[in-house]
Structures are given as C-alpha cells and as structure tokens.
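User: quick one, sequence for these tokens?
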C-alpha cells in the first residue's frame, strides 16, 4: 500500500487495444484462453546475446539488460591487515589503502578497487559513479577473500554493573541477575546516534496502531550483538529482570543497559554496537554505473521505511550491479535500489539495476526495497529471515518490496522463512513485470502471503514458481483489521495478470486470492480485478484453491488435489477442495464440477492424487502426481520450466515438466540457472 503520486512513472506509450468482446459467456472464455496459448506458441524466444536473458516479459519482448563485460583501466587495492597499508599510500598492491572509504574518494570511471580479506568498520561513500556499461566503477572482494564491512563498533571495555534502575514488582533478587551498563560517549556517531532515535520515520500516513502496537515503532534503531548474535531490545528496564539476551536504552541514547545470555560478563565476549545508518551508500544522490561484488555487509542501525534507506543503498542512483554479496542484520532495510522516497521528486532515470546471487539474511522489515524501479533484473538471490520487527501494518514489508515496477524481471530467487512479511510485494501501478521461476515459502503470520500484486491495471505475469506454506496474520490497528491472509498469491485491485504453471501448497486460506478495491483511485480509475488468467497451476492442500472476486476472470487447465489439509469445519471461510467466487453478493462456494458447469472455468482442469513434501532448507521436493493431468500449448512464455528444462509444444500443469507418478525426490534450487 502506498500513496505514490499517479505521475510517478510516465505512462507507457503502448497500451492494450480497446476491447468490445466480453468474458461473460463460458464458451468464449475458454476459446480466448486457447487462442492466447496458440498464438503465443507461434514464435520462439530470441536467441541469447549480449545482455540477453532468453526470458520474455509479459508483452512478448525479451528482457535484455544493459550489462557488458567489465573492463578497467586502473585497479586500486585495500588491505587493512597489511602492516604497510595507509590511506596516504598510492593504493597499489604493494602499498595499499587501509580503508575502502579512501578508495571511494579517488576512483574514476573505468576504475576498480580490489579489497583483501579483513573486517572494515566504516561507511563507504562513493564520490562518483561510472560513465557507462563499459566504464563502471567497481568495488569488489579479491578472489577468495573474506571481506566484511560493518556498521558496528566493538565495545569490549567500559562496562560496569547496572544498579540505579528498579527491576519492578516481583523481580528476582538483584544478585541473581547480571545487568551491565555502558556510556556511549566514546563512539564516533558522526551526527547519527541510533540509540537515541526511534524506528519510525517521517511519513506514516497509514500507521494507525493501537497503543499496544506502538512498541516496535518507538524502540531505538541501535542494535547490540554478542558473539554475532543479535540481542533483543526491550521497552522498559525492568524487563531485563525477566529475560537475558536483551538490552535497554536510556532516554538520551547515551547509556545502554544489557543482560547477556546466561548472565555473562561483556568483557569476556565480543560485543558490537551498530551505530551507522548505512554501510555502503553514496551521500551524493543519483550516481550511476557502480558495481559492488563479493562483499559481506553487516550491522545497519537504519529505520523503518519509508524512506527506503538500506544498509546498502543506490541512493536514488541507476545502472548499479550488486552481485555475490552478503547483507545481514539490518534493523530496517538491507538493500534499496529505487527512488527511496515518494515525497521527493522522482529521478529522471530510476532503477535499471541488476541484483544477482546475493544472500540477504536477518532484515527487520525489508530485504530488497525498490521504489519506482524500471528495467531491473533481480535474479539468483537467497533472501531469508525477514520481517522480525512485526510491523506489517506499516505496509512496507517483504523479502522483496518494490513499487511501480515497469519492464522488470524477478527470476530464480529463493525467498524463505519470512515472518510478518510477504515473500514478494509488488505495490501500485506495476506494468509488464514478470515474476518467474522462484521458490518461496514459510511466509508466516502475514496479512498477504507469498506474492502480493497490488493496484496494477496493465499486464504482469507470475509463473513457474513454487509457493509453499503461508499462514494468516493477526490484523489489528485502530481500524480493527481482522486477522486474514495466508494466501499463496494475492491479486488486489489488479487487472490482466497471467498466473500460470505455479505450484501452490499448504496455504492456510486461498492458493490465489483476488480482491476488488473499486474505491481506491489509481491514476484515473478504481481497481476492477478483471481479465486475470489462472492457467495450468497445481494446488495442493490449500484452504481453498482459487478465490475470484468476480466472474470476469479466467481459469483453465489447473490441477487440484482432493485432500485439502486440516480444514473440517464447514462453517469456516475455507473448505475442502473448494473454489470461490466471492462477489458480488453472497460468495459462491464451488467444487470443480460446479466450477466447470456453471461458469465454464477449467473445462480442461482436473483432480489428481498427489503427495508433495517441500524442504525449503535443503531446497528439495519429494512428490508424486497420479491421474490424468491436462495439457495445453506451452506458448512462447512457458517453453522452459523452473529448472530450465525445455518443453515441447505442450506441457502439463505446474512449474516442472515432469510429474512423477511414484514418489520422487528432486532438487529445486533455481539459482543454479543464474551464471
């Protein structure tokens, strides 16, 4: 949800033709789907070339990036473990710089810095960007080097027993707990003290919490780590009497009190205090053609979006490549690549970046954030353990949370173990964006689920994904939003989306949920949720499979299981093997026969006996599907499956071409396709 202005991204010059036909007749609905598939099958994807991906966007054009093989005219070196290193050096291999920050000030277009193994506690502030695809500025770890850049400082000394504050009623005896305190005056905050700043930032028009929901927003941004483990921050000092592994900040942010796990002494452990908002981020906005490769970034004491200010940040720049990096332990956002702030005038060029083969782990609110990104490629990333801050009602959560995407490709990513956060949220006026070949799951206690596509009036595509296990969120807010969610895919006020060849399983509610939002004006009209197509998907043990918000959508060639999980109460708003049409009026609750007979949906759909187990940690699936599965023309968009296997002229439902009839274990890591 966002209040991005309607003119944030220029309207496309190519729109769908005016249509006078209707989807109201069942026969016509089926014919249109078949015609779509047959016409799509008539052409092959273009041959791969420079910057080519071989993947088509919804409009049929191949996604071709601007990337070119890098060439550099000069290489600088940084090695803070070299006894001869100094920032007054020329930055050669023999006389390297001691900080990456120094290299960031001298690099010119077409140059790079190679960083040797070490821990670098600094903020990297690039002074300039490159000058084109073949004159980029590159920051890269040396081959085989373990380069870790941290926004934290070691605080091994300065601790003393904490005795001035009361532990409260029914507290344990003071000698029974070991609480320590430390002043922070010696830390070089450089004008940003996160231990004195609350998590919430300036624009919270949608944040209407109940008093008991304010806690997370009013806690401080600073973080504390002991031996690499993040400690919990508590709201009141007396809570330290009831739990260890926690810390508390005094009102002025200059003294913290901590109780370590097992009542340990801080002097005997590595204690790190995250004090930087960002770790790699230009202060000059809008720099372009920067590459960041093979570096680990940790410990950013940043706030909750918006603005989207990541631990690693393009700072409203464009044409960045972020690849083979690790980003972990961000209080708010790990990585941002877009326009950052909807209250600012949009940059002339937004996005056009490449985010590839990274590992994002332990972000409090968002893993990858992008506002108004265009022509962007997100591929082969592992994103996990995002959303622990539990602020979904601020509407900016997600493993990937991007607004107003246009001509973007999100493929071959693994997104798992989310809590209070969707795997992928595409928010507001998305156009010609494709989400394909991803594995995502274990999205728990979320008001949406796996993929959430919101308020988008022109075609997008969600296909060949595995979406596994989603449970509903608790709701809340002063407007008393009820608990709901637990959906595999949510299509909200959105038209003309193709949802094809996905495997969706173990969702608490619908595998695919459609919602109308007629009263929300996007551009010049409200949302209609019409002309969406659900083609060739597999639904396994979901609360219900498809929940259309109206009849003006299409379902064809889907495969359903008769085993619908744990739901047995017929009065519940979910049921065994049921598809719904939720409106207008009283919901229609249908089995496959009624779905076909009365509405013409899934004329080629079928039931099958299935057994499916997905191990998201091992990225393996053991499954069997027995019974006659429908087949349909593959079409030019679906000529390869999730693992890259080529289809013939026709393919069966689901993201994999092979449907074994006996239990078979297969590897399902799509990242191996990304070189």
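Assistant:
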């Amino acid at each position: 949800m966002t209040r991005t202005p309607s003119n944030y991204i220029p309207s496309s010059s190519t729109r769908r033709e005016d249509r006078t036909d209707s989807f109201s007749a069942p026969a016509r609905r089926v014919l249109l789907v078949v015609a779509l598939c047959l016409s799509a099958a008539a052409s092959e994807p273009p041959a791969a070339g420079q910057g080519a991906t071989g993947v088509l966007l919804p409009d049929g054009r191949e996604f071709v990036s601007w990337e070119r093989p890098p060439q550099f005219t000069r290489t600088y070196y940084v090695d803070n473990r070299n006894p001869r290193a100094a920032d007054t050096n020329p930055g050669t291999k023999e006389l390297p710089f001691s900080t990456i920050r120094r290299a960031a000030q001298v690099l010119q277009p077409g140059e790079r810095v190679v960083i040797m193994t070490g821990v670098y506690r600094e903020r990297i502030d690039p002074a300039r960007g490159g000058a084109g695809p073949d004159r980029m500025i590159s920051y890269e770890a040396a081959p085989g080097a373990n380069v870790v850049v941290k926004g934290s400082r070691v605080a091994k000394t300065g601790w003393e027993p904490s005795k001035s504050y009361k532990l409260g009623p029914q507290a344990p005896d003071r000698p029974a707990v070991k609480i320590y305190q430390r002043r922070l005056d010696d830390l070089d905050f450089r004008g940003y003290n996160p231990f004195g700043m609350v998590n919430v930032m300036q624009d919270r028009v949608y944040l209407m919490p109940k008093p008991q929901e304010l806690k997370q927003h009013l806690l401080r941004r600073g973080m504390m780590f002991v031996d690499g483990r993040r400690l919990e921050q508590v709201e009141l000092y007396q809570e330290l009497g009831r739990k260890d592994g926690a810390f508390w900040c005094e009102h002025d942010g200059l003294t913290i009190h901590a109780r370590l796990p097992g009542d340990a002494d801080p002097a005997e452990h590595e204690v790190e205090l995250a004090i930087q908002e960002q770790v790699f981020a230009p202060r000059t906005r809008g720099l372009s053609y920067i590459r960041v490769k093979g570096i680990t970034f940790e410990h950013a004491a940043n706030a909750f979006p918006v603005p989207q200010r990541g631990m690693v940040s393009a700072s409203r720049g464009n044409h960045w490549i972020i690849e083979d990096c690790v980003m972990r332990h961000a209080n708010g956002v790990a990585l941002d690549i877009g326009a950052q702030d909807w209250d600012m005038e949009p940059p002339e060029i937004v996005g056009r970046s490449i985010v590839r083969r990274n590992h994002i782990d332990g972000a409090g609110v968002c893993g990858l954030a992008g506002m108004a990104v265009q022509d962007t490629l997100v591929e082969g990333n592992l994103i996990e353990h995002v959303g622990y801050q539990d602020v979904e009602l601020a509407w900016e959560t997600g493993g990937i949370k991007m607004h107003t995407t246009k001509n973007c490709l999100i493929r071959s990513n693994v997104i798992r173990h989310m809590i209070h956060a969707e795997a992928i949220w595409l928010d507001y006026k998305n156009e010609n964006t494709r989400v394909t070949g991803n594995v995502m799951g274990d999205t728990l206690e979320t008001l949406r689920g796996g993929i959430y596509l919101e308020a988008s009036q022109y075609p997008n595509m969600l296909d060949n994904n595995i979406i596994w296990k989603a449970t509903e969120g608790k709701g809340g807010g002063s407007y008393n939003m009820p608990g709901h969610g637990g959906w595999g895919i949510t299509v909200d006020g959105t038209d003309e989306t193709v949802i094809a060849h996905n495997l969706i399983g173990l969702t608490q509610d619908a595998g695919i949920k459609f919602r109308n939002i007629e009263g929300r004006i996007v551009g010049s009209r409200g949302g209609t949720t019409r002309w969406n197509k659900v083609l060739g998907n597999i639904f396994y043990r979901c609360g219900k499979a498809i929940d259309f918000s109206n009849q003006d959508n299409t379902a064809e060639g889907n495969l359903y299981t008769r085993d619908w999980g744990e739901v047995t109460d017929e009065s519940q708003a979910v049921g065994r093997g049921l598809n719904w049409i939720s409106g207008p009026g009283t919901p229609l609750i249908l089995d496959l026969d009624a779905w076909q007979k009365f509405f013409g949906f899934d004329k080629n759909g079928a039931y099958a006996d299935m057994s499916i187990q997905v191990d998201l940690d091992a990225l393996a699936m053991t499954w069997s599907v027995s019974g006659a599965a429908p087949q349909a023309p593959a079409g030019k968009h679906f000529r390869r499956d999730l693992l890259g296997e080529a289809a013939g002229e026709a393919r069966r439902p689901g993201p994999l071409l092979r449907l074994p009839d006996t239990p078979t274990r297969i590897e399902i890591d799509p990242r191996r396709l990304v070189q």
